[in-house]
Design a protein that fits this description.
By secondary structure, this protein is mostly helical. Helix content is 60%, strand content 3%.
Length: 312
């Protein structure tokens, strides 16, 4: 078949629908996977229902892709052909009569338990205190530890995605450090609040330093080379911290996001408020944290076995 017009489709998604950078990159990868399949099997227009079913089997059996990956790749290709048909009715979508059901197992999120969160915060505070002393030298500078600890605290209280937080600029933080303007998925802006007074002051001081170093348009968080801190760099820092504290499974930014949501629901915060905080378009996405909270309740009750206590 003719070469898939990846670039035009991706550009249309960006310009017409405001799709985010990470989603655009996923679209491009998904279409490249389909293009390789089409070339290997010498598919030609117009594609048929059987071609799409064959691609589904290829993803499932030959590539061994996970159900979520299969669903995403099929949805991307379906969107591409719908977009193409909309621009040229002589090229009908092969998905018109296709009904493929991909069963995705619903997994509970794995938040970080409270004891581990306390240990992480205590380790960060203790390490920063030591590195800040005059004459103390280490491979990890105090400034890097301070930034890492500040980000961890913000992830815990705001539930931000790490990409959202590393893209924040100095001007996006309110003068008192109490709120942050965030550009989330699909370029949807939202405001998240920093409820802890001590953390507000810490964030305000950090913004003040960054303002003196650069401008209001500068990135809020920098790496050790003075450039915007990348998500991947922060993930490496969390892996190192996990090894040092013996935390398994290792810490990730998204586990902090899970923790933020679960802790709020356990503390009685309305689920719709948690939805707004996390920037979920659908309430269904947030509801999984209610299940996680119930799971935590069950584990707590099992530890406090009332019958066992009464017997002893």
């Amino acid at each position: 078949m003719r070469h898939l017009n990846h670039n035009a489709f991706v550009s249309a998604c960006r310009d017409e629908r405001g799709v985010g950078h990470h989603t655009l990159r996923a679209y491009a990868q998904d279409l490249q996977t389909f293009a390789r399949f089409a070339e290997a099997h010498q598919l030609s227009d117009p594609l048929s229902r059987d071609d799409i079913l064959a691609y589904h089997r290829h993803l499932r059996d030959a590539l061994g892709a996970k159900p979520a990956t299969i669903e995403r790749r099929l949805v991307t290709v379906k969107s591409y052909f719908a977009w193409r048909e909309d621009r040229n009715s002589a090229l009908p979508s092969p998905f018109t009569d296709v009904r493929i059901s991909v069963r995705i197992p619903r997994r509970l999120p794995r938040p970080i338990d409270r004891d581990t969160l306390r240990a992480v915060l205590q380790e960060g505070e203790a390490t920063f205190a030591v590195r800040s002393k005059p004459g103390e030298h280490d491979a990890t500078p105090a400034s890097e530890i301070a930034v890492t600890l500040l980000i961890i605290k913000l992830l815990i209280v705001t539930g931000l995605r790490i990409s959202e937080l590393t893209n924040v600029r100095v001007r996006d933080v309110s003068p008192d450090g109490g709120q942050i303007l965030v550009n989330g998925k699909g370029s949807r802006e939202r405001i998240v609040f920093v409820p802890n007074r001590e953390l507000q002051e810490e964030l305000r001081r950090h913004c003040e330093v960054r303002c003196n170093e650069g401008s209001l348009a500068a990135p809020l968080f920098l790496n050790t080379e003075g450039r915007r801190l990348r998500s991947a760099t922060f993930r490496k820092r969390l892996r190192a911290l996990s090894r040092r504290l013996g935390i398994e499974p290792h810490l990730t930014p998204h586990r902090f996001r899970h923790s933020a949501a679960t802790l709020l629901i356990e503390e009685g915060i309305d689920i719709r408020m948690v939805q707004a905080l996390l920037g979920h378009a659908s309430l269904r996405t947030t509801e999984i944290y209610v299940q996680a909270s119930n799971y935590a309740l069950r584990r707590t009750l099992e530890r406090a076995d009332i019958l066992d206590i009464l017997r002893n």
